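User: Hello, can you help with two protein structures?

Assistant: Certainly.
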Amino acid sequence: MRRTRRLAAAAALVVASLLMTGCGRSDESAAGPAEATALGSGKASGTVTLWAMGTEGELLPEFVKTFEQENPGVDVEVTAIPWDAAHNKFQTAIAGGQTPDMAMMGSTWMTDFGSAFATVPTDLDTSGFFPGAVQSTQVNGRAAGVPWYVDTRVLYYRTDLAAAAGWTKPPATWDELHQMASDMKSKAGAEWGIRMPAGNDSYQGSLWMPLSNGATLTDGSKWTLDTPQQVEAYEYYNSFFTDKLSNPDTDISPGAAEADFVSGATPMFIEGPFMRSQLAKLGGEGFDQKYASAVLPTKVSSTSFSGGANLVVFDQSKNKDAAWRLVQWLSDPKTQVSWYQTSTDLPASQQAWQDPSLSGDANLAVFGEQLKTAVAPPANPTWTQVAAAGDTELEKIRRGQESVQDGLKALQQQADAIGLG
């Protein structure tokens, strides 16, 4: 469903590289603009320059024509930027004082450039957005952006194979997920019960387990990655490998997860909404009747993580008023429904999910339910470095090269050295 996801993953690697070489930030540790003013009513006028990445950058020029029609005195100039070039382009623009008026900003990039963003007007209400999405807009205690679209991860499972294994409903608890994976293999003939996160982005992809076990990633002053809750969560993760329900050598090349799901070799995985279109394309007509999605199984809670993109206005903008009015328009529930129908980006506005185009699709509605408890990744500029270190330790754990306790201890030591930024 998310056609930009693979590009976004590549971009995340670029971010990590930049941060590790010390050139990923300008002055992001500064508090940034602190004063917020009211936007008030009125029409937008003048020129608004907007940068957007990937598919969004391709679709926005036509989409914002409606805004221009509603505000005859405004002209919106959209510049589409490749994901893999965007981080460097933003960094250069900020350093040179040549930013656009506003931009689409990946939620994990907010702290990288936060001091360059204007503070959200006091009367631009975000109370109706998913809490995790709003959380991702906070930089140093201030609202530095407005949620635009959201992403989270849920359980996908083959209903036909589940029925063959004796399951007529999705697993509700961690124990049930483990048992269902076992039954998928022993009773339904699957090669593996479930695909567990592996390769790049595996640590972030596994966060639903510690988060659902009551763990936190920081205590505000340091990383907390080897607590008892974390250890218990990753012992659970590792149990799928030690019990031979997940493949430690799983193919992590693009399209492999979808192929194994469609063939039935691995009838469960935990992924984002973009998988829906991928499965429809690979599985063909009628395949949507062979699988379903469900909220993540509960331990202490059922908590996934919230991703997506926000809308920001740069403090150097020459037309803040019109830029914020465009942000306000793009944030309106009706506009968000229209944007979903255009792009398939999931709305950040909870009210938008009441529209039949979203609420009428049971598998899609699951994402809306999961987003109610989803948590944004830590708003720290060093998060990408810590997550990359987590990928390395998880690989050692799933391959049996180190214990869970040793792996998390090593991760904590690396995180302590990296710091919170």
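That covers the first. Now for the second protein you mentioned:
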Amino acid sequence: MQYGWWLLAASTTPTPVEGTVDPNLVTPGPWGFAVIALVGVAVALLVWDMLRRIRRGRYRAEVREMLDAEELSAEQGAAATRDSDTDGQDIDPADDPRR
């Protein structure tokens, strides 16, 4: 195992031969640029739409919470009014059992 790294260090690395690959065949060219540009525009539009939908959902949740709070306060106010009704009877503060 000690001698294995010497074999790797002693081996030569291959070098590419110049002129075997046509650079016009391996570049994306104008069609590749157009496709990537269209994908970029599509992604930007999708992100914009997603953010709009998230914002709309958040606003709806806030409005729903406000309406629930108003409904709860109205119910509590109605309950307080109903509980405080004396049915037309006079209450003498001296007869109040809480004193």
